[in-house]
Design goal:
globular, 4 strands, two-stranded antiparallel sheet, mainly alpha
Length: about 400
């Protein structure tokens, strides 16, 4: 092999290259010579720098075309010098932030409008008409029928009216004891209560207040003895409920019989009934039309302060008229005070009955009177009002 096959001899001073010997084949490699070629013969060629190690990775397209492909590859793999920054690498695109990237929608999903559509205008609800809560037709019919029976018995013969009171007391005791047993498993003995209650009303009419108190004491004793015939479990609660029932229904009703004993007794009883009914009517009418502020929402949600004002106003006007024209020696101003007291006692009596029904978890004490409930639902305001009217009548015009 001749020299031309390897190129011109290397220049002096170009050390660091191991090449074939120029002495011919088989002579080995000598230090200081380099192969001939255009890449090494250019006088402007600079000394090469060591190639950086490129890590294995996916193939990246090179930039720069024919100019220094190896150097471009080195730059794609990473910075050659430490002072190179991200700005020196234009091929690296900035990473998008998570909140800048749109959420991918499933195939076939309907795109959602980020701004909610305005709701379509809805028609204004029709104002609801207030309801009385009961059948007014039946309530008025039953009330008129009861009033006719009471008035007829009251002015025909007094003893007949005493019998009407006794019957109402017995039915009221039956309703009360039945509800106590159904709802609270309290067995107040009905037999001694019914017999003692009827006797209490008659004793009050015949013997006055003293007879009423004696009959009340004997009725309570009969309840204690009657209950002894059964097992002792629940004895205390049964006899306590029995004594309460004897006081609440027949004893308070006895004051109506006491009103009847006077010479103008029927007119006093009629005044008592009228004032109680007018008070309830005024409370209902004004409260149903103008009632907004609850009187006792935990006990009776239907009662309002406006209704109480109506009860007081109606009862005072009715009291002035009744005391002036129905009761002997009565005065109009006495009727104003009587009407005020009746409105207060009737309201408290109604609330007391509502408290009992709330404790028992029932709406009415019975179903005997259509539109009204039971007898006890009509006696709730009459019973506590009877002693108040009797007392004020005695103070204003005497007991005679």
């Amino acid at each position: 092999m001749n020299d031309s096959s390897w190129g011109a001899p290397s220049r002096a001073g170009q050390a660091g290259y191991w090449g074939p010997s120029d002495q011919g084949p088989g002579q080995g490699y000598v230090h200081g010579t380099a192969p001939a070629g255009p890449a090494y013969d250019a006088p402007e060629a600079q000394q090469t720098r060591p190639m950086p190690i490129v890590p294995d990775g996916p193939a990246v397209p090179r930039y720069g075309g024919d100019q220094d492909d190896d150097r471009g590859a080195a730059r794609l793999s990473g910075p050659l010098f430490r002072d190179e920054t991200q700005a020196a690498r234009p091929y690296e695109a900035p990473q998008a932030q998570p909140y800048d990237m749109p959420q991918a929608q499933p195939y076939g999903a309907v795109p959602q409008n980020p701004e909610p559509m305005p709701d379509a205008p809805q028609p204004a609800p029709a104002p609801q008409k207030k309801s009385a809560g009961r059948d007014l037709g039946a309530a008025i019919g039953v009330g008129v029928g009861l009033g006719a029976v009471i008035v007829a018995s009251l002015f025909v013969y007094k003893a007949v009216f005493v019998g009407v009171i006794a019957v109402a007391v017995v039915v009221g005791l039956w309703e009360l004891t039945s509800r106590l047993q159904e709802r609270k498993q309290i067995k107040a003995p009905l037999v001694p209560l019914a017999l003692g209650g009827a006797a209490m009303v008659v004793a009050g009419y015949v013997r006055g207040p003293e007879g009423a108190w004696v009959a009340m004491a004997l009725t309570a004793l009969a309840v204690l003895v009657w209950r002894m015939t059964e097992p002792p479990e629940g004895y205390l609660k049964d006899v306590t409920a029995g004594v309460f029932a004897a006081f609440y229904v027949p004893f308070l009703a006895t004051f109506v019989a006491l009103l009847l004993t006077a010479d103008d007794g029927p007119w006093r009883v009629l005044t008592f009934l009228l004032l109680t009914v007018v008070s309830d009517t005024g409370a209902y009418a004004i409260g149903w039309r103008f009632g907004k502020h609850k009187l006792a929402p935990r006990i009776s949600p239907g009662k309002t302060r406006e209704g109480l004002f109506g009860a007081v106003s109606f009862a005072m006007v009715a009291g002035a008229l009744c005391m002036e024209f129905l009761v002997d020696d009565g005065r109009w101003w006495q009727g104003l005070l009587l009407g005020l007291a009746v409105a207060a006692s009737a309201t408290l009596g109604d609330l007391g009955e509502s408290m009992i029904k709330r404790d028992l978890g029932i709406k009415d004490m019975g179903t005997l009177l259509p539109g009204h409930g039971g007898i006890m639902d009509r006696l709730d305001s009459l019973l506590p009002t009877a002693p108040v009217v009797w007392l004020l009548m005695v103070l204003f015009v005497g007991s005679g």
